[in-house]
Amino acid sequence: MVVSPSNSENGIKVAQNGMVNGRPSNMYNPGNLSLTDLKMNVIMVCPDCKQKIPNIIEEFASGDLVCGDCGLVLGDRIIDTRSEWRTFANDEGDDPSRVGNAANPFLDGAQLDTLIARGGDGGSGFARDLNKIHSKNTAQKHERNLILAYKDILSMCDAIDLPKSIGDVAKQLYKEVEDKKLLRGKSNESIIAACIFIACRQENVPRTFKEIFALTRVPKRDIGRVVKELQRLLKTNVGGMSSEDLMSRFCSNLSLKMDVQKLAGIISIKAKNMGTLAGKSPVSIAAACIFFVTQLLCAPTESKTISITTGVSEVTIKNTYRQLYNESSTLVDSDILKAFPRASIKNLPLP
């Protein structure tokens, strides 16, 4: 028996004999731990009784560890690890604990409202009516509107596979609009779409304006106006979107290989530096560069397929491709031909 110097005065002994908390270690060894692991187990032994299997009782009411045989106090100020609520479960197995949900940082107030369950009345509907009346009387209109808007934000973000961080930023922007009473007279749907669009730009998660517009039934012009108004009122610095930001997602959706994505990014940067595609939108540049590179590497992808994936019309893709084709001898230099052996200007079809 090895006695711990720090605890010997309190009658607490530390043993390395394969015992855990006064009980055989095999009760705590379902996975058959090694002998080294068992030696690290610590037990408490009453210095008066000195039983091999001590009878130690945890009295949570007083916070003491007491020997059940002689009553000697072995420790004090122990922590009660049990549930901190009382359960009055009925025969159906419900657990009406008084612990509520976590606080929502996007809502105001203490959030300690009382909720009345809809069921449990034998199907009479009385509990449902009580729940409805109670909700109308207690819920504030401002908070109710925020909850509905947050649900719409989450559903829109899920529709285009946006991460949770984008939804949180969009909620924060919407809450700021509501608290400051901005954009009065604007439709709620356009405000939500604008908040998601700005959140995507702030978090560097590129989504085109058409993708956000497709989630709503609001005219594109209205959403654009709300976005500009929000940027002015909230003084948000929204960075621009480049064609390289969209390239990886478009190539992934088209199931293209990595060399296509890499070369399309190189062609896009060179074309913009040369001014070949001046005035073209990043989406159009990305779509045309993907079409150009798939032809260059002899792995052609139809312009119709690219149009469906990127949301750019076939006419725009072909017109932009024509500009790239006219500068193909400059864009596809010897370094590109050396790095990509499959690349050849002869593979490019006439526009």
How would you sum up this structure, described in words?
This protein has 351 residues and is mainly alpha-helical. The chain has 4 domains: 69 residues, no CATH class; 36 residues, no CATH class; 94 residues, Cyclin A, domain 1 (Orthogonal Bundle); 105 residues, Cyclin-like (Cyclin A, domain 1). It is 46% helix and 5% strand. The strands form 2 sheets. A 3-stranded antiparallel beta sheet has the order 3-4-5, with no helix packed on it. Helix 3 packs across helix 5. The longest helix has 19 residues. The relative contact order is 0.05. The N terminus is likely disordered.
Summarize the SSE layout with pairings.
Blueprint: E1 19-20, E2 23-24, H1 35-39, E3 56-59, E4 64-67, E5 73-76, H2 126-138, H3 141-159, H4 164-179, H5 188-202, H6 209-213, H7 220-234, H8 243-253, H9 258-274, H10 282-296, H11 303-310, H12 314-326, H13 328-331, H14 334-339
Antiparallel strand pairs: 1-2, 3-4, 4-5
Organism: Furculomyces boomerangus
InterPro entries: Cyclin-like_dom, Cyclin-like_sf, TFIIB, TFIIB_CS, TFIIB_cyclin, Znf_TFIIB
Function: General factor that plays a major role in the activation of eukaryotic genes transcribed by RNA polymerase II.
